[in-house]
Structures are given as structure tokens and as C-alpha cells.
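Give me the fold.
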Amino acid sequence: MAWAGAVGADDLPRPIVDDDYLPVSEAEARLGQLLFYDRVLSGNRNIACSTCHHPRFGTSDGLSLGLGEGGKGLGPDRVPDPANLPEQLIPRNSPALFNLGHRDIRVMFHDGRIETDDSLPSGFRTPLGEDMAAGFSGLLSAQTMFPVLSADEMAGHYGENDISVAVRQGLITGPGGAWDLISDRVASIPEYARMFEAVYPEIAAGRPIGFTDISNAIAVFIAFEWRSDDSPFDAVLRGEADFSDAAAAGFALFSGQAGCIDCHSGPLLTDQRFHAMAEPQLGPGKAARFETHREDHGRFRVTGQAADLHAFRTPSLRNVSATGPWGHAGAFSDLADYLRHHADPSGGVATSPILPDLAAARPVFGLPDEQVEAIRAARVRPTRPLTKAEVAALMAFLDTLTDPTALYGRLGVPDAVPSGLPVDR
């Protein structure tokens, strides 16, 4: 092949094959599609999953930090609603949804607070611990429904609706819990009731629609819609094409001197581990309302281990060119700038966030110098400044990871949803 002199075939991961993915029912995926785009799942019926994960923005929202409850509009055009001002921005960048139906996925969220755990009956660990409801089909299903419990994301703020009240009271599972209330909403819509009966035999036999049914259907949709294994990179892995000279040089650097492959490894280009990389923090950070610090401690919030301070999950690089802004706080809207900072945080690369205007609500703030220094000091990986030519080569390689089929989606945005509520476009 044309790139053989620059990089050996042994440096390439194996190609992705059909058996790497969980099986998908298209009928279940079509049900999940409607639920994904339906605002009925949010406390105030004004936000859908698609509000923060839209195909127009690479299954993210095009913002560094999103604006959930209290916002109106989509993507970078989303602004605070004067009639219902938000309390704060979403603390971390909205992650992309590609290949989450792959069997090897074992952690979710930037801090991995949902992850596989074979020692537990469910097979995964979540913040609900032993209170987690049974019936979720897997990790992706469990993950998809935690945003509906977040006051800033989908539930609504304290006292605004029955869902937010239940969450505030700690009623999540069981009769009268937040998930039960959402299930009742969905079940009361005749078209959804018919679709659930057609997809799930137990419901057709008389079992009520449960929250896990909603979550399972959405998970199947995400797995089906955004499976990504048809990029130019995949064609190279299958031996069907060659890298261009520029992309070959980029991959040689990626898998060699730049050391990117140390963390971005395997077919999904992630080790699914957690690393402190001195990424800039914007906004409120991930903290409880009662906490006064503004420093996002990352994986440490899950494990309590000092070694995990400011460590965040290695993201998959699939479709990375389309999923900006980049970083767990979305501090960079230019991927080349992000690469330079990621390689050498001391290089003085300026951040370039894309943020909604919250001047009328809570402002976006910086961190005290000592906290900025703590984030920098947590990094253990050596720095290696990149030249202009090296950045260009890496960009050429990263462009080969773009899969038009996955970016566009297989089912697309529905014309309407059974609730009759507006659909994000």
C-alpha cells in the first residue's frame, strides 16, 4: 500500500465487523427514534434528548457547555428563555453518540460514573447503586435516561413540574417516582401505546409500559442510528483503500512519536480509561449545589482516588472533525488549536469556546490561579510540542475518521412525534 513505508500494518487496529455490535430490531429503533426527539420526556415538555445530541452538530450541540432547562433554540443559536431563566450551564461538553452499541463499550460520561461491573447483578454500576431499577438492557440503556433526572438538563428546576418535584424528593424508582411519572406520560399517548405493544410482547400481553422499556428503545435507536464503521479509515482497515500521503504521515505520527495511540487505541480509538491532560475548565464544573468550589475533579468524583483528580475519559475519535467544540469542557472550537494544547498545555494556546449568553442569569466564570495550576499539575503525561506541519498531518489523518453515513444518521429526524410537541431541527 502507498503508506507502507510510513507506518506498518501492525500499527493499525483490526477492522470493525458486524459481530462487534449488539443486535438491533429496526422496529424498536424506530420507536426509540420518536422518543429521542420527543420533548415529552422532559419535566417541562420543552427539551428532548435531541436538544443536546443532534445530527446537525455531530450528535452533540455545537456548544462548549450546553444550555438545557431554561433555554430555547438549538445549537449555537440556543439562548436563555427570559420567561424561565436557567440556573447554570451544563457543567461539561455534550459527548458524541457514535458506536455506543459496540460490545466493547464499558464506560459512559466524561467521568465514567456509569460503567460495566460484572460483580453486580445488573452488570453495570450507576450513581443509583442498589436502588437502580431492573430491566435495563445494558449500559447504553442505563445511561440514556439519567439526563431526565438532572434539573439543569431535562427534569426542570425545583417545583416547576411533577418530575422535578419527585427528583427533589429523591423519588426516582418505584411508584410515584420520576421514572414512573415519565412512563405514565408516554403510556397515555395512544400512538406510543400501540407501538410499545407491537415491539414488546410482554406489553402486548398486558404489562404496563415501564421506564426501562423507554430507555431500552432509545438505546437501540442510538446504536442503530449512529453506528460508525464506514469511514475512509475503515476502508483502510479492511484493505479496500490506501491512506493519502498526508493521512499516512498523520497516522505515522499518531501511532509513533506523538504517542496519541497510547490512549486512542483499538478500533474505537479509545482505551476507555481516564487521564489528567490539563484540559481547561469553563463554567461551573461538575459540583453539587451545596459545594462552593468551582474545580471539576473529574474521575475523582466517582472513585475518591487522588490519582484520578482532573482525569477524564479518553473519548473515541470517530467523526472527531465534526464533534467540536473539543475537550471535556469544550474549551476549543478549533481542532488544530486543541491538538496543540493537548500535546503541550504550556504552549500558551488560547481557548476559543462557543457559549450561550448567560449574562441575564449566572455568568460563565474562570478559576482562581491556584485551581488552574492544580489542573495543570495533575497531568503526568510528558508534553511534546507539535510543529505546524505535524498538526496538518494529524488533521489529515483525523479527517479519515469521518463517516458520512453515521453523521447523517440512518432514520434521520422524524417529521413529527406522537406527543405533538415541536421537533428539534
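DSSP finds 16 helices and seven strands in the chain.
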